[in-house]
Design goal:
The chain is an alpha+beta fold. 20% of the residues lie in helices and 21% in strands.
């Protein structure tokens, strides 16, 4: 007899959003792709060849404990400090030209190189995954990201044995990004992961959402999703990926290390210095639900941190 043990973040199938509803919505998105691209994607329409890649096939290994957050909520509630401190960054983010876009791979790799995002997608392929997203500000959403495992990018880079960390750097352009003119922020935005974290199955490179290419306010054209960590670990609009022996000094860590550390794993028992992390507000409602350790993904990632009791893993 096959006995299936439910993961801590799963719920009975009867509680999930009916598949017919979600598939009908996906079909509507596909038929309206041209309209959606014009209304939601800043910086000009994406090439038809790119849009044809969406929606990508769903990877059913990744399921949710709640319905997918409606795009009308998540698409207009974004932290993207390059474009200001307001949650409504879409108008300002439209100034970012996202096509063509080149990604630089350097550091401790076999041979540094540059690659266009469209070429990268063609090399590695795309899939859709349903992920939870938890912000350190204690709000959350459920997102249908499209992209590919970060491990595929690591394999393409062919890092040297001395590479211990992977560093992500966001675009820098003060002319179009008003937030980057704020002198006390340590621009450009930098984030990082250890190589074992980058190799975990959950670590995901994102190029799309809701069945279409990534809109600017979500971090177009390429960002990271690390669902067991607070959202600020998921760098947006990345231009450079570097492999290094030294731990990167990340943006928020450099700005306020007492509140934002390198690891930033979700833990309801460890409060932010100015608010509790015990519960979260589900975006699009006033509902608060209990926060889960590692955002509900402890089965997949807790082993990454064995023997690190001396580290500030949850700040």
């Amino acid at each position: 007899m096959l006995i299936r043990r439910h993961r801590e973040w799963e719920i009975p199938e009867s509680h999930a959003t009916p598949e017919t509803i979600f598939l009908n919505r996906r079909a509507l998105i596909g038929s309206a792709a041209g309209l959606a691209a014009g209304s939601l994607i800043g910086g000009g329409a994406r090439a038809a060849s790119e849009a044809a890649l969406y929606p990508a096939p769903r990877n059913d290994s990744y399921v949710l404990d709640r319905p997918v957050t409606a795009e009308r909520f998540s698409g207009d509630y974004n932290n993207f400090y390059e474009f200001g401190m307001s949650k409504t960054v879409l108008p300002a983010a439209n100034a970012l030209k996202t096509s063509p876009w080149t990604l630089k791979i350097d550091g401790l790799v076999e041979k540094p190189f540059e690659i266009g995002v469209d070429d990268l997608i063609r090399k590695v392929g795309l899939e859709e995954r349903l992920y939870r997203h938890r912000c350190v500000e204690a709000w959350s959403m459920a997102v249908p990201w499209t992209g590919f495992p970060l491990s595929k990018l690591v394999a393409l880079a062919k890092p040297a044995s001395g590479a211990k960390y992977i560093r992500f750097e966001t675009f820098m352009d003060k002319a179009i990004a008003p937030g980057q003119r704020v002198f006390y922020y340590p621009w450009p935005y930098v984030e990082g992961l250890t190589m074992p974290e980058a190799g975990n199955d959950l670590a995901f490179v994102v190029t799309g959402v809701y069945g279409k290419p990534l809109p600017n306010q979500f971090g177009a054209p390429i960002r990271i999703a690390v669902p067991w960590k607070y959202g600020f670990k998921s760098a947006k609009s990345i231009v450079k990926v570097s492999f290094t022996a030294d731990r990167p000094k990340t943006f928020w860590e450099g700005l306020q290390s007492s509140e934002y550390g390198f690891w930033a794993n979700v833990n309801p028992a460890v409060p932010h210095p100015r608010w509790s992390q015990a519960s979260e507000r589900v975006l699009g409602s006033d509902q608060r639900v209990p926060t889960l350790i590692y955002n509900g993904y402890s089965e997949q990632v807790a082993g990454l941190y064995k023997g690190m009791e001396g580290e500030r893993l949850f700040v």
